[in-house]
Structure formats: C-alpha cells, structure tokens
Specification:
With about 400 residues, the chain is an alpha/beta fold. The chain is built from 14 helices and twelve strands. The protein has helices spanning about 20-35, 40-55, 65-75, 90-100, 120-130, 145-155, 210-215, 225-230, 250-260, 265-280, 315-325, 340-345, 355-365, 375-390, and strands spanning about 60, 85, 105-110, 130-135, 160-165, 170-175, 175, 185-190, 200-205, 285, 305, 365. Strands 1-9-8-5-4-2-3 form a seven-stranded mixed sheet, with helices on both faces. Helix 2 runs parallel beside helix 9 and helix 3 (about 65-75) runs parallel beside helix 4 (about 90-100).
Amino acid sequence: MPSIGPVAVKDTIPFSRPDLGAEEERAVLRCLRSGWLTTGPEVGALERRFAEHVGARHAVAVSSCTAAMHLALEGLGVGPGDRVITSVLTFTATAEAIRLCGAEPLLVDVAPETLDLDVAEVERHLSADPRIRAILPVHYAGQACRMDRLLELADRYDVRIVEDAAHAFPARFQGHAVGSLGDATAFSLYANKPLTTGEGGLLTTNNEALAQWARRARLHGIEQTPDQAARQGRWRYEVTCAGYKYNLPDTAAALAHPQLRRAEQARSRREAIATYYRERLADLPLTLPAIRGSAADHAWHLFPVQLKLERLLLSRDGVIDVLAERGVGTSVHFTPLHWHRYWRQRLELHASGFPVAEAAGQRLLSLPIYPGLSDDEVERVADTVAALLRAHRL
C-alpha cells in the first residue's frame, strides 16, 4: 500500500518521459559531425522509412503536426468560406490548422465510450451544410476513429479527410495502418509522443500532387528536395508557389531513426501497461478507456480514465493534486474547445451543443503510460490511484 503522504520530488513518476538513449545520442552526434544540420539527407531518409512503415506512398517531414494539418488542408483546396468538421475534444492545434487556411472549424461532439468523433453528428452536419469541404477526425488517445464510416460519408458527400494522428503512431484500423487511410494524415513528433524529435511532424498521403506541393510549401515555396538541398554549393533555386517556414532540420530527424526501428516494441510495452491498469483499476469509481476492436491496433499514447465524481468526495482537480503529492504525475486530455474563451467567442459555442464532451471534460484524467516506466513504477501508479479512490469513495 503506498504512503498516504507526500513524497520526495526525486521519487515522482512524471506523466511523460522521452524514450531516448545511446542510439539517439549517436545518431545526433553523427549528424552534427556531418556538417549538415538543416533539412537534408536525414530528413529524406526519415520520410522514406516512415512512408514505408505506415504503408503510404509519400511522407513529408515538417516542423509540427499543426503544420502538417495546415499543409494537408490547404493542399487539398480548403480555404476561405469553407467549413471543416472536427472534434470539440482535442488540442487547440486541430482547430487552429483549419483557421490557418481561412476556413471555419465546425466542432462536433464525441461518442460517449470512445471519445472520438460522433459519426451520426458528422452525418447530420454534412447533410445540412454544403459549405463543409473536409472532415478532420482526431484519433483520440491512439485509437483510430471509425474510418470505415467516415470514408463512406466522405465519398457520399464529396469531402476530403485529413486525419489528426498526433496520438496514433503506430495504430491500425481493420488491418490498415493509420497514415494510409484518408486523403492525408498528420502525425506529431512532439516531445511526449511515441515517436519524437522534440518538435516536428509528418504528413503522409497517397496523393502525389499534394506531396509535391507540400514539399515546396514547407520551405517558402522553393522547388527543392531534401537531398538536393544537401548538395553544398547549390545556390540556384526557384520559388514556385506561396510557402511557409515549416521544414524539419536533420538534427531533429536523426533522433527519429532509432525510435522508428523499435516502434512496435515500444507500442507493445504501452499495451502491456494498459492491460495492467485495466486489471488493477477495475471495480473502482472510474470508467476505463473503451477499446474498439483489438488492443493490439491501439497506439496507447494515452490512458485516459473518467472519474465517477458522483461516487467520490474529491473533484477531478482534487484527485490530480493528491496524486501529485504522492508522486504520480497526471494530465488531462482535453479541456474541450468550447471551454476556451477564444473558440467559445469566435465560434459562438455553447455547452448545450456538446453534452458528451462537457461531461467528459470534468471527469477526464490521463495516467502515465510510456515504455520507460519500470514494472515497479507501473505498479506504484496503479496502487496509488486505487488507494486514493477507495479512501475517498462515497
């Protein structure tokens, strides 16, 4: 039984910890010694290997998942006057990418069990609003949305699908890797993601024209590949389209190669932790994450639970505070977008339009789940959560 009092800071289990080691150090050092630091051969190699890993024809490395979503939407023709459906339960970057195109986010509530896009709500909006140009589903926590139904709707209503797969590497849906399903998919390489370069993102697509445009647009519209850019002494270039400063440097890409080689091993470790949590936290006043299909298809980037507050003496924030005192770091995914002043005012949002996300926003709590957690740490997280909830159960 864990101590009921606070613990020393050095004994705290952080919510997230990068899975980096000697291989990553050697890869970055090799890059530094090469004399080529910005977008070049390491980026080109990452793009080829990542595309092969997810079964897509093309991968384009960029500076963030937000940049990947923005380029995908703009490259597919989304612009001013258009609307794009996405989830209200997501990080602000998802809606921000839509705004960057000059389009308007159309926020939709989530399914009660899986907390991904409510497909019935998506269909209701598609049938009523001809301004909708695309759907941007969020693969929440690492589990793929109902892509079969979303793809059918996209075909019926002639709209595009750009997937927010910030949580979903490596994940699968009905035997297909996320990254090879919609018109384009955006992945995050942020510091706490399963595949990290500190900051960064990847856009995957089977659309050759989109991939070629995204490669130009990510670096000021310059017609150049990473391998061409690496040829020192090449001074002549041409700007062929409007662009952005969205390129990924080689020093960042180098970090990804060792992680990509052990991606499935890392995913399996996260799955094992999720399985342990599900067993140890059963019969407590919380709702465990729902699994659609096989747990082996889930990336398990997050392990979000929903506290049954009506059966607890503590609020969600109170539970977070006590767990922190006892040395267990947690987080919340997410604060629904209609709670944020900017989106609430800009889009004239009301809680009544999102009953599922409104309730979940008050109850959600994400537990640590990453390959670097030791068995002892996993056990301690589960024991600490269980002891806390039993001690404060009504």
